[in-house]
Amino acid sequence: MYAMGMGFRLASLIFAGLAVGSTAAVASDCPGRSGALGVSRTIVVDPTEHSRIGTMSYVETLPLADKEVVLTFDDGPLPPYTDKILEMLAAECVKATYFIVGSMAREYPQLVKRIYDAGHTVGTHSMSHPIPFKRQGVEKTKAQIDNGIKATEAALGDDRTIAPFFRFPGFGSTDHGEAHLAERGLMAWGADIPADDWRKIGAAEVAKRAMRRLDGKGKGILLLHDIHQRTVDALPTILKELKAGGYRIVHVVPATPDRPKTVTTAAEWRMHTPPQPVLPKITLADVRELDGSGIVSKSASELCELKAVPAREQRIAKSRAGKPKPEKQAAAKPRHPKPGKTGDAKQPGTKVAGLGVVGIKLGETDSKRTDASDKQTAQAGKSATHTRAKHVNKKHNKLAGAKAAASDLRSTR
To answer: What pTM was estimated for this model as a whole?
Structure first.
């Protein structure tokens, strides 16, 4: 009986230890740094079961819970940037996944070993990072993948093993490239959240984009590069905001015979976006004063404010609509212009029959417009009178001349 009790307590302690290990409590991972970000848990994946991850390229992604983040770094190693990033991660007891370029591993093998010895996962990222990678033929693609792995393995040495993780340069995946990865049992990694640190933007903008996109998805694989100064400058802000936002770091490692995969469900490998607000259902047949063109022009918020009409009121309204309404004959009232206004007033520069072009300055009162119109009318009348008088005088002069000529003729006879 005593032995059974001791066995039960021992099993309980072992289970408790496994539970703490699976969540990787910050206190055990980062002794002496109680406020460090740390690693919340480690996911063990089998590349042969889920061979392509990262929603920027594929349907599936890592089985993360809300507020869980996986940090990844591409294109290195490159001093002094990789060194500084390793120091910052160590200060927060954070583990990441590095995708090494083969040519960089040949150049800086000691830095590759430092990454591995710090407990980070080491994957590969082709031999020379050609862009665009999609233009590589079948043989060149195989050579880029295989030679990058060989160069990284050579840098690590025989006593260190790289992870079977590969990320296509520039996300330039191809069918023949993915087929070659499957033949070698490698997992193709995409990403969920780009920080755009490869673009010519400031460190503050890198951190802003990373956190804004992460907040939008709620979780995911964050893509960074350990070959830029802007990434070095942005990382402290990113780590600080991750901690302030309640995010947790997850470390990813491959399954081995001694390290079984993490048990998951198929649904956990899909990115679930935050639920969108559900708008209330609107029955347009019940809307008061329904107008087809008006309904189309309304926004969603305006539609939500429309009120339904009770069935009884609808029947009453329909019965009233069927009865002809008596027409009201109102006596036509003559319209009289208001004092000071005239219907003949025109805009500046317009022509008036018989008056020529009327020129009225903007800002004049109605009385001024009337006076100006009357003045021009009077001037036109005077001109017409003068023309008629001139014509009459001309006829009179001709008649007087004729009489004078006849008188002279008679006197001569």
So the answer is: 0.62
